[in-house]
Amino acid sequence: MIPMEYFLVLAGILFAIGAYGVLTKNNAIIVLMCIELMLNAANINFVTFGAFANDIMGQAFVIMSISVAAAEVAVGIAILLNAYKMRKTTELDDEKLTSLRW
Amino acid sequence: MDMTAIFGDYTAIAPLVFLIVAALILPGVQLLGKNRNITWAVGLVLAVVSMVVNIMMLTDGYVGAALDLFEYNAYSGLLILLFSIVLVLMLLVSNASVETTRFNTGAYYALIFAATLGMMFVVLSSDLLTIFVGVELTSISSYAAVSMKRNDPRAAEAAVKYVVVGGMSTALTLYGISMIYGLSGTTDIAALAAWVQTLPEINLLLGVGIVAMVAGYGFKIAAVPFHMWAPDVYEGAATPLSMFLATGSKKMGLSVFFQIFLVMFVAVASVSFLGETVQYLFAIIAAITMTVGNIVAIAQNNIKRMLAYSSVAQAGYILIVMAVMSEYALSSGLFHMFTHVFMKGGAFLIVGALICAGVGEMISDYRGLAKKAPFLAAAMMLFLFSLAGIPPLAGFTSKFFLFSSTLYGMEGAVDSTWVWLAFIAVLNSAISLYYYARVVKAMYIEKGDNTEKIKVPAPFMVAIVICLVGVIVLGVYPQLVFDLCESAAAALLGPYLL
Description:
The structure holds 2 protein chains of 2 kinds. Chain A has helices spanning 4-24, 28-53, 57-87. Chain A is mainly α. Chain A has a single domain (4-89), classed as Helix Hairpins (Orthogonal Bundle). In chain A, α1 (4-24) packs antiparallel against α2 and α2 packs antiparallel against α3. The radius of gyration of chain A is 17 Å and the shape is elongated. Chain B has one domain. Chain B has helices spanning 4-7, 14-33, 36-60, 74-94, 105-124, 128-146, 153-184, 189-198, 204-221, 229-236, 239-265, 273-298, 303-318, 320-324, 327-356, 369-372, 374-388, 394-404, 419-444, 458-476, 479-493, and strands at 64-66, 70-72. A two-stranded antiparallel ribbon of chain B has the order 1-2. In chain B, a hairpin with a 3-residue loop joins β1 and β2 (70-72). The longest helix of chain B has 32 residues, at 153-184. The mean pLDDT of chain B is 87. Chain A binds chain B through residues 8, 15, 18, 22, 28, 31-32, 35, 38-39, 41-43, 45-46, 48-49, 53, 55, 57-58, 60-61, 64-65, 68-69, 71-72, 75-76, 78-80, 82-83, 86-87, 92, 96-100, 102, and chain B through 129, 132-133, 136, 139-140, 143-144, 147, 150-151, 153-154, 156-161, 163-164, 166-168, 170-172, 174-175, 177-179, 181-182, 185-187, 231-232, 235-236, 296, 299-300.
């Protein structure tokens, strides 16, 4: 059987990649994708812990978090589309999207 | 009246039922009736009925559970009352504000009711899973509601920032919860509190879990250093919505802190090393949050932005509860949350009313307001002085309770550990008076370009008068709500205190 640490390290790496992307990328679509990576890292954690402890709660939590993530991305893309119509850009550091400061 | 006779096994979620019905039928009502006044009236009636049902349950002292998920007690009852007050104030002005009547009416009301539903869902739950889902219901509905202000580039930008930052905070929270779940094997908060007491010491994974959860939920209450989205969103959103987010959504985040971290660590507070570490973590966040919020607010020229930073600072004051971790601190924190609804809500409502009358959002636009709208200027002055904490207004009473709670440890013995936090908080109140007084000076001393009288819509006046009554009555007669706060704190923490 594959040891538990392997799954946790995989999740940790995924989470780190996602967090790095959120902090450094300028394109809002890529940022949303990186947030998905971070959410899925947490999902892997839940499934792993649930499977190794023989507890159903881990999987129940993943079902909930997948549906929450889907709703969040749907709303997020709609908001980006709305902003794109107004600004003609999805770049977060573009001067058109940084009029609100301090 | 006995509510169990009407609602049976579902009594614990009775106040929510009306909101679920409203969120589901209002888009249909709008589609069929094609009249936004009818939709508004139906929504307002359902919200008021929900509030009345909850007040009856609260005064009856109802305690009960429903569906194995929800537990109604004095704590959840009190916070449901707070959220329904916010909802009713918000609905009152929604049909009169020039900012919100341009929205798609059915969708707008459905989103507002769904967001309030999420807040009530959170305060009724006792499990990390239901708290997570409730917080997300509120957040996702608010993202959509903020972006409804079409053809306004500022609102579009605010919504993009809100959804990106909110998504990141969700991911952080979920990762933190997964760590806690993996270590303890449970997501039930009562079981977690028992588990924390058996821990010999902190390990790395527990540290990662707690820090990730604190950061994730810290975004929701806009605690420094996770506060950057709040001023942008409050400035970009329609003013009634800014009021809703600053008073309702933020209180939900604070309640999450009480329900998860306070309950988990209250038994080990000032006993074990783990407990003290968590207390100092929150003490530092509280001190930084109030200081940064107040200092940055001085530099603001837009009044919505200034109020947003002041609301960051107020969240810092309430976080004192998380450092002190006592029952008295929790009851005074709940009381401050209550008074904050009236004073911050009232200030935002006046800004919204003046926007309807064509006055701008800049502090310089408020010059000579005392001549143009004497009542509004006087009300604004009272709300701002209440926020700064000047007696005999509500803000003074609640701040007095909150800061004095740092002096008392368990069982009322004097404990000087957190006095420095009260000292920082009092200094901050003095700083805040400076920028509140700037607005008062603009309204009363500086001369405006004209003295034409300003007329604002009647629903706004009703909502502002309600807030004004709240600010004055709670200031001179705090026991009205403070007794409820005390029984709420006892209901939440009672089982965990020795």
